[in-house]
Structure formats: C-alpha cells, structure tokens
Amino acid sequence: MDSVFTRQPLPVWRRAVLKVGSSLLAADDGELSDRHARGLAAFIGAARAQGREVVLVSSGAVAAGRARVPAEARRAGGLVLRQALAALGQTRMVGLWQSLIDVPVAQVLLTHDDLRNRRRYLNARNTLLELLRLGAVPVVNENDTVAVEELKLGDNDNLAATVAALVDAECLLIASDVDGLYSAHPRHDASAQPIGSVAAITPEIIAMAGDPGSAVGTGGMRTKLEAAAKAANAGITTVLFNGSSASTVAELASGHFRGTRFLASGTRLAARKYWLRHAPGSGARLRVDAGAERALAGGASLLPGGIVGIDGEFARGDIVEVVAEDARVIARGLCQYAAGEVRRLAGRKSREIESTLGFSYGDSVIRRDDLVAMSEVPA
What's the CA gap between 323 and 292, in Å, rounded? Predict the structure, then answer.
C-alpha cells in the first residue's frame, strides 16, 4: 500500500546519520534479513556517489544473537543474557552491512559515557571523522555488552541524534517500520492523521507517540521524538520514514522522502558555536601571539607554533580559553592535547608534534571545527 504521506524534498545535506531499527533487519525466523537493508545500502551507495557521507547507526545485534541461542536457554537471564546476545550478534549485524556496501564498513561501539566524557567524546569524534575521510562507512552501535543502563533503554534513536551532533551532520535520517508520525497510533485509531512536518517537539506532539510497536525492537515513537528534539537543539533536521517501503527508500536517492520532517532550531553551526562559547570550561588559558590571533580571526585552527604560554591545567578534550597578547579572550575551544603536552609543543612546528611527544592527535592544538571566536556568536 502506498504511503499516505506526501512527497517532500530532503533537506540539503553533505553528511547524514542514518539510523536503522531492529524491525527492518530481523526476519520472521529470528535471523537477520537483507530484505529491507538492501534498499538502504543502495541509498548509501548513491549518496556516496554524489559526494555525500553517511554514518550508519544500526540496531539488530541482540536480535541477531537471539537467533543463535536455543529457545530454552533464553527463558531466563535478563540483562546479562541480552548482553551476551549482543556480543553474539554484533559481528553478524556488521557482516550483513559489509555484504551490501561496496566500501569498507567500520564497527564503532559507543556508550553514553563515551559521549559525556570530554576526552572520550573527542576521541570518538576524531575517529569517526577520520573514518569518513578514509572513505569508510562507520557502523555505530551502543556497546551493549558492557553498557547495562543503555541496553535497558535500548535507545539507538537517541544515540543516533548524539552521533549526528558529534560528526556535525546536517541531517538525521530515521528508518522505521512506520510511515511517519500520526496524530494518534494508526494501528489503534482509524481517525489518525499523518503529520508531515513538525516545527517543535511540544507536549502535544509527545502525546501522539504510542507504545513500542515492534517485538524485536526496544524503542518506539517516543524515543524517535526525543531523538528529533535532541537533533533540533543541535541545529539538525530529522526525517522519519518507512524503511520497509521499497518505493519510499528508492526516493531518497533522488532527494525526496515520504514521512515526517522535524525542523531544526536554528542552524547547526550556530548551535555548536553557542555550545562552545557557553559550556563550562576548565578555567585554563592558552596565550597566543599576534600571528595566531590573525589566523584564528581568518578561520584557521590553532597550531602549536602560535602559542606563547599556558595558564592552568586541563585534560585532553577540555574547553580552554584562547587569549591575545593583551589578555583579551578571543576564542574558546576543545583542546586536542593536555596542558603538559601543550607546554612541550608551544612555539614548535606542527610537524614536530610526533617527535616531541612520541605520538600525535593531529597537527592542531584546537581544530577549527572545535573552536569558536568570541566575535562569532552573541553573548
């Protein structure tokens, strides 16, 4: 049956996160199926051919593991059993995607703790961006084998929104087994009307969400609305569509979809820069020379050669202030190196980083994408 949702253009995007739910990957016998995954993989290939990048957040590991265990062994065990099932199914899920995508896929397992801790957040961000630069398709999932709380939530929708902000995506695409958001649960209320566009996630919108609708998934419409709200706050538009509809998925490659669009609150760049300016910092400062000040004003990263002093202590991934020679605060950003490491690098060339420290996190002390000049956003 054709979707009752009208055809809409996708938002303009260069990098997107595609979240695929368990219900789209699990077959009736419990094994993984490529029935719906083939079309989604074809969309990823078409997007890459157009010069775009896609990060895949895929559920399905627990469902895949369940098929490998006799039914009598699954009657008890609770979260510990589910953790074991995730471990059993993770490689099968990634293998499914690799069989359908003609470039390398890379498994990336995250927990919410990885994204709350600044140092681990920066490590995850750099790894994902480097994988995209190398031409790979990252396949992200929660590290269900160790993350008890996250596994209990089973919430890859919110993880996908967090990953979208992490990699500076312009769009979050959520492939579900429903056509989009309705005014009421369409399986229970025949008068339910399709909602094509949502400007803001209000209590009235939340009230439209029903209970989880899939036997193999642990999320539902409510978690999708939570994810859309989180993405909107980061300046990212969310698109919810039916990934089990071959015609709907086929339209994605031509820049169209049928489903629900959740509008972003402002721009992605403005949201990130506002966060960098106002998030709690370490209290430490990097003092830079006039050349570095001019370079930062022109949109460059902060290189070690322009640093003339460090005040205070901080860890890798902490937010530090950048001050000019006259002590004016000119920028804030996430530092790629810890304070002791920056002290050793100050005044040196970027090419000397590895020989000085014995390792390198990159040529810059603060990457341009992780830095905001104080003139860029309002106070």
Answer: 10
Query: What is the per-residue pLDDT across 30-61, written as a single tens digit (0 to 9) for each?
Result: 678 999 999 999 999 999 999 999 999 998 88
Same domain? For 151 and 209 the reply is: yes
Cα end-to-end distance, the chain, whole Å: 52
State the pLDDT at residue 146.
67
Per residue in 15-29, pLDDT tens? Answer: 999 999 888 998 876
126-164 residue pLDDT tens? 899 999 999 999 999 887 666 555 444 447 898 899 899
User: Can you give the CATH number for the domain in which 156 is found?
Assistant: 3.40.1160.10
174 forms beta bridges with 19, 240
Residue indicated by tokens 């002791």 = 340
- For residues 48 and 161, membership in a common domain is answered with yes
Q: Tell me what pLDDT residue 62 has.
A: 81
In a domain, 233, yes or no: yes
pTM for this model (two decimals)? 0.79
Statement to judge: residues 79 and 200 lie in one domain: yes
DSSP for 7-68, written as a single string? EEEPPP-SEEEEEE-GGGTB-TTSSB--TTHHHHHHHHHHHHHTT-EEEEEE--HHHHHHTT
> What are the phi and psi torsion angles at 13 (to 5°)?
-150, 150
14 and 92 assigned to the same domain: yes
CB 219 within 8 A of CB 176: no
Examine the domain organization and report whether 235 and 211 are in the same domain.
yes
For residue 295, give its domain range. Answer: 272-373
Q: 266, 290, 308: which is the final residue of a domain? A: 266
Take residue 83 and report the two structure tokens written for it: 């953790």
Sign of the Cα torsion 112, 165, 375, 311 reads positive
Q: What percent of the chain has pLDDT over 70?
A: 89
Last residue of a domain, one of 245, 266, 287: 266
